[in-house]
Amino acid sequence: MNMALLNGLYIITDGSTGNLLLEKVEQALRGGATIVQYRDKTSDAARREQEARDLKSLASAHNALFIINDDVALAKTVQADGVHVGREDSALATARAYLGKSAIIGVSCYNQLPLALEAAQQGADYIAFGSFFPSPTKPHAPRASLEVLHAAHQQLSVPICAIGGITLDNATSLLANGADMLAVISDVFNAPDIAHQASLYRDLFQQS
User: What architecture does CATH give domain 3-207?
Assistant: First the structure.
């Protein structure tokens, strides 16, 4: 797996389904998104598997990575590039054992640098911090600071993903403090022109 792709605009699906989901993600990929995370907490297993397969094909066609949120079994079934897990003690080890050495495993560490250092030591391929700003998706999420991000950038040897309320207006501060990836939902998928909005994020990375 090309770990160099763990950089850039990291889009997380917004709850859309079917053709609308695929259309939105394709636009974001055309605009320059480098990573797609499929996040769907519903119980419709057949639909979720089909959407995951379709999204994996889309991401591959655009040379982007495809990550599944929290569902290790689905990630293995559709041969996703990896999975993103929470802070549960066994999540990282379980995912690695199930998906193998080549899978990309990202871990949410919220605002906790010690947790991130431990996850990296245990083999996480990237670390996510956030929420950095008020987030409509997770309004009660723990708030992370730029100071934590900066310290993580100095101490971690794996890529860092920032998440939570990110917009084009505040993204620069995250890149300046060491974020390698920006995970965005609303500011991309709610834009009138998704491809154009994604391209503006791509430009930020090229300028930084």
Answer: Alpha-Beta Barrel (3.20)
